[in-house]
Each structure stands twice: as structure tokens, then as C-alpha cells.
């Protein structure tokens, strides 16, 4: 389920707004121009100080570069760091009107419903819980607002320098082996699995946890389906993620060797290390942030935090001999069976964590402060993985464009890669087609015949090119603009008559359609191509030059140790 994240706006000409936004999702400030409002720096609800994060950061600065955000938008939208003192008290008393726009809200909604309240109250709240607050494709009469959306998403909204620097270090460490690496995001997220009814693809407590979450979604009317559905049928329709085992078989069909380096992205891996065992057996060089970064590096990213109790679970008291005797006397008529053997010891890890409540209660407990802190940490881990995935030589999504309407990590990475490096190798596979192929050889997946391998290669290789881009534009962009920001966020240096254009039935460009770049941009591109392509951003120059030979040795040892680690047992296997 989407988690609310908050931003505040302050008025221009007596107009103020309160705003909320989801992690790494477009802060569509085009509606601010419609409302003539001033933006107060956003508050991300998962990273408030009340959630246990370090006092070193405020909510927005926990992830993003605050000064970059303010300075880059100064010519478009006025951004302030806080509400005026006269309005802070009113906000605490909840005196501001509150709106919860859908991610498909039109400009008409803001002009006819929001703007009148804004003029009357001076301050309003906009709560965004679906990853957006404005329709993906704006009318053709609003090109400047669409360009503003591009500037915000790809330039104003930048991760703070510490995240970017550590992410670049991780990329360097992956590439020091001298070969390219592939980034893979499984997309095994509990909420998505519950939304689509994929519980039967898992076992035991994982199925129970998915069904419990699905029951909550039905009760909240987030979905209007039966609790129990055929997960295998859903999978065949492409509505469930590819399992890591299936991804490994696809990579083998493509010709990847056991020496291939695979970076595992994503802060949530539902199913734990157990579901990764088949993939790790096929590709031992499977690494993640914990195997590339030291504990000190990750703790520096988090910042100094107030210590919290690690576990609230208390071991049950041992029964006295008197209690045991009373239970024996009440055990029923004789002849009595032998008393049961003594209970085995209960270990602490069995009762703590996200799964410990299943054997004790019927309802999931209220999240503790430690749970909130861990959720905030997940934002940082996702941000690190985002940097590595965008820079990877190849990216393969396990579950993108799932149709739930919620933004997903893979779609955001694919959109960013398309914007920055359109020629990069990004697989845009069709899960329904892939499952049809797997159903042909599911009984003998590890030894497919030659024809099956050829068909898999044809589909995956075609997804890298024009057909994959068109499919992504057709199915993903209507739900999430950032998943396919072309042609709105790009321009063409070659003459327009040389471009190929493909439109959908409603006239929307699926391929091509970019405007021609202005002359100053063409000349700037030529000058840039003459310079050293290896020039690094300022933040990278300032911080990465401090790396020493010890850091290089550390990187090699971390990657090597990750490659040699025992893949059969993980004490944290959940």
C-alpha cells in the first residue's frame, strides 16, 4: 500500500498549499503554476523525525538535496523552507482544507475544486498517496507545464550527495573486475503480491502473510475481488512477478555465464534468501549493497541515531513445579497418556521481526518505533539501489508495469535510463509471453530444447529495441509518466523529417514525436562531445578523489568475499 509523504506549500498572492509526495515519484509542480502557489519543502512521511531517523536530517533532506531543489525551481515556482510562524499554529490545529487527489487528477480538478478553496483559506493540503497528483499526459495546450514536470523529475529532484557518492563507489567496485554487470530488481513486495493474489506461489507463513494483507486491502476497498484466487492463473496472465529461479533460467538462455556479476536491487525481498537459492546456484556472483559496502559506510549514510531497544519480545516465564502438578491433575480421566516431552527452547529470532506474530496472534501488531526506523532506512537502501541500477550495463525488471496503478522501483529506473541513456540495455519483457514459454517446458526448465531457447532469446532481444519501447509507452506511461518520459522530456538534434513516428489510437506518440532541439542545445551537445566524457559532477569530484588505495583494496575484497560466500545458509533467512 502507498505510504503518505508530505510536502508543504506557502502562498503566492495569499495562496498557500500543503503537499504530499511519494519517494522517487514525480513532484508534479505544474499544478503549482495552475494554483499560483508557493511550495514549502516537502515532508516525506516515512522519514519524519518522529519515525526515529537521525536528528541530522529533516524529512526531505533525508533523501534529497534541499538546496538543489530550491535553486533549480526558483524561476518556475517559489520554494520556501517553512511556513510563516503565523500559519504553523493553524496547521497544528488542522484548520487547513485537505484534498487527496488521484494520480489521474486533471487540471480541471485543480482549477475548479482546489483553487477556490485555496483563495478562500489561503492554505490547503494536498495528500498524494498513489505516487502522483496529476494525469500522466497533459493536454497539448500545456507544453510548458509538461516541461516543468520533466525539469522537476530529472533535474530539481536529486538525491543528496552522500547517497550519490556511495552509489557511485558501489558501481566502481562492481566494475573493477573488468566486466559489465547486470542489475536485477525482483519486485517481490508484499503489498504487490497481495494486490494481485500471488500467495500460492509461496509457502507456509509467506502465503499467510500475503493473504492477511490481501484481506486488509479488501476490507479497505482498495481491491474488489475475492480473497482466494488462482495464483497460477494470475501468473500465467503476467500479473505476478517472475521468480528469481525463472530469471536465472532466462539469463542462461541468453548466454550469460556463471561468472556474470548480478546486482540484486530492492530493499524488500519477500520470501527472504530462500527464494534466491536457485538463482545464486546458477550465478554465484550475486551481490547486493551489504556485500559491496561496509557497515561503517551504511551507518554514515543513516547518520547518528538514538539507540532503541532491538526487540520488545519477552520470553515466557518458566512454569513452576506447582503449576505443572496442577495441570497434570486436571489432565482428564485415567489412564492418562505419558506427559509430553519438554518444550524445545524458543529462540529470540523466532518471535521478533515481521513474521513473529503469526504463531501468537490473529492480527498484525502495531508497528514499533524500530519498525518505523527500518522503513525509513529502506528509503535509503532503495535510493542506493536506484543509483546502481541506473548506472548498470544491463537492467532486468522482475515486476514492472503490474497494472496496480502504484509506482514501482523498476518502472522508475527504466524511465530514468531511457531519459539519460536511451541506448542502454534495458529489458522490457512481456511477462505473459514469458510464462507461456515457461509453461511449455516447466517440467524440465533446466534442460530446455534448442527451439525454446531461441524463442526466449528472440523475445528478450526484441524487448531491448523499438518493439519494447513501444510496448512500454503503450501500457506503462498512461499510469506513470516517469516510466516513459519520451517524447515530452527530450528533443531531436536531427531534422524532424528523418524521424520515424508511431501513434496510438488516441493520437498519442508511442515512438518518436520529439521536437527539434534549439540551436544553442545542439551546439552545446557538440562542444560537450569534444570534452572528456569521463568528467564527473562536482559532488563526485569533491568526495571521490579522497578515495585511497585502501579503498580500492577494500572494494576488491568485498566483491571477492561476496562471490565466495556460502549460498546455502543464511542465519537471517526468513
Automatic annotation (TrEMBL):
Alphabetical list of Pfam families matching this protein: O-FucT
One GO MF term attached to the UniProt entry: glycosyltransferase activity
Biased composition (Basic and acidic residues): 525-544
Skewed-composition ranges (Pro residues): 334-343
Record region (Disordered): 303-343, 522-574
Membrane topology term: Single-pass type II membrane protein
Pathway: Glycan metabolism
Main location: membrane
Acidic residues compositional bias, start-end: 564-574
Protein name: O-fucosyltransferase family protein
Gene behind the chain: LOC108813392
Amino acid at each position: 500500500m502507498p505510504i503518505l509523504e508530505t510536502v508543504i506549500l506557502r502562498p503566492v498572492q495569499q495562496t498557500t498549499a500543503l503537499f504530499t509526495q511519494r519517494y522517487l515519484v514525480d513532484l508534479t509542480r505544474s499544478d503549482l503554476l495552475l494554483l499560483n502557489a508557493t511550495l514549502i519543502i516537502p515532508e516525506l512521511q516515512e522519514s519524519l523525525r518522529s519515525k526515529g531517523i537521525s536528528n541530522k536530517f529533516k524529512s526531505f533532506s533525508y533523501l534529497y538535496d534541499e538546496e538543489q531543489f530550491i535553486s533549480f525551481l526558483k524561476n518556475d515556482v517559489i520554494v520556501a523552507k517553512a511556513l510563516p510562524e503565523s500559519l504553523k499554529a493553524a496547521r497544528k490545529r488542522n484548520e487547513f482544507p485537505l484534498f487527496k487527489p488521484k494520480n489521474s487528477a486533471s487540471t480541471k480538478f485543480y482549477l475548479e475544486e482546489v483553487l477556490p478553496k485555496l483563495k478562500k483559506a489561503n492554505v490547503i493540503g494536498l495528500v498524494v498517496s498513489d505516487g502522483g497528483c496529476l494525469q500522466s499526459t497533459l493536454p497539448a495546450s500545456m507544453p510548458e507545464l509538461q516541461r516543468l514536470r520533466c525539469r522537476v523529475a530529472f533535474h530539481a529532484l536529486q538525491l543528496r550527495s552522500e547517497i550519490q557518492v556511495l552509489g557511485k563507489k558501489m558501481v566502481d567496485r562492481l566494475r573493477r573486475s573488468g566486466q559489465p554487470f547486470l542489475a536485477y530488481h525482483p519486485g517481490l513486495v508484499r503489498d504487490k503480491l497481495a494486490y494481485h493474489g500471488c500467495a500460492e506461489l509461496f509457502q507456509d507463513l509467506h502465503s499467510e502473510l500475503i493473504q492477511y494483507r490481501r484481506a486488509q486491502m479488501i476490507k479497505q476497498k482498495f481491491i474488489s475481488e475475492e480473497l482466494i484466487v488462482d495464483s497460477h492463473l494470475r501468473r500465467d496472465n503476467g500479473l505476478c512477478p517472475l521468480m528469481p529461479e525463472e530469471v536465472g533460467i532466462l539469463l542462461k538462455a541468453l548466454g550469460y555465464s556463471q561468472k556474470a556479476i548480478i546486482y540484486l536491487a530492492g530493499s524488500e525481498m519477500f520470501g527472504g534468501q530462500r527464494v534466491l537459492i536457485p538463482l545464486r546456484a546458477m550465478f554465484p556472483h550475486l551481490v547486493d549493497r551489504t556485500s559491496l559496502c561496509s557497515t561503517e559506510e551504511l551507518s554514515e549514510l543513516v547518520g547518528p541515531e538514538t539507540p532503541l531497544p532491538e526487540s520488545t519480545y519477552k520470553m515466557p516465564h518458566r512454569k513452576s513445579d506447582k503449576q505443572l502438578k496442577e495441570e497434570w491433575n486436571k489432565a482428564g480421566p485415567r489412564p492418562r497418556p505419558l506427559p509430553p516431552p519438554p518444550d524445545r527452547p524458543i529462540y529470540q529470532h523466532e518471535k521478533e521481526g515481521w513474521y513473529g506474530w503469526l504463531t501468537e496472534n490473529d492480527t498484525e501488531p502495531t508497528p514499533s518505533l524500530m519498525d518505523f526506523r527500518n522503513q525509513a532506512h529502506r528509503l535509503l537502501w532503495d535510493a542506493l539501489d536506484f543509483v546502481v541500477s541506473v548506472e548498470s550495463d544491463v537492467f532486468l525488471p522482475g515486476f514492472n508495469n503490474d497494472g496496480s496503478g502504484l509506482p514501482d522501483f523498476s518502472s522508475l529506473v527504466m524511465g530514468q535510463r531511457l531519459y539519460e541513456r536511451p541506448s542502454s540495455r534495458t529489458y522490457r519483457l512481456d511477462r505473459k509471453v514469458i510464462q507461456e514459454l515457461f509453461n511449455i517446458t516447466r517440467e524440465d526448465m533446466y534442460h530446455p530444447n534448442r527451439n525454446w531457447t531461441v524463442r526466449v532469446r528472440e523475445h528478450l532481444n526484441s524487448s531491448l529495441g523499438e518493439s519494447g519501447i513501444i510496448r512500454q509507452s503503450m501500457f506503462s506511461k498512461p499510469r506513470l509518466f516517469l516510466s516513459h518520459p519520451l517524447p515530452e522530456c527530450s528533443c531531436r538534434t536531427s531534422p524532424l523529417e528523418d524521424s520515424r513516428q508511431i501513434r496510438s489510437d488516441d493520437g498519442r506518440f508511442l515512438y518518436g514525436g520529439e521536437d527539434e532541439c534549439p540551436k544553442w542545445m545542439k551546439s552545446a551537445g557538440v562542444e560537450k562531445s569534444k570534452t572528456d566524457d569521463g568528467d564527473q559532477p562536482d559532488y563526485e569530484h569533491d568526495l571521490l578523489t579522497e578515495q585511497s588505495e585502501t579503498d580500492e583494496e577494500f572494494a576488491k575484497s568485498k566483491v571477492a568475499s561476496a562471490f565466495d560466500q556460502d549460498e546455502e545458509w543464511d542465519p537471517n533467512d526468513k
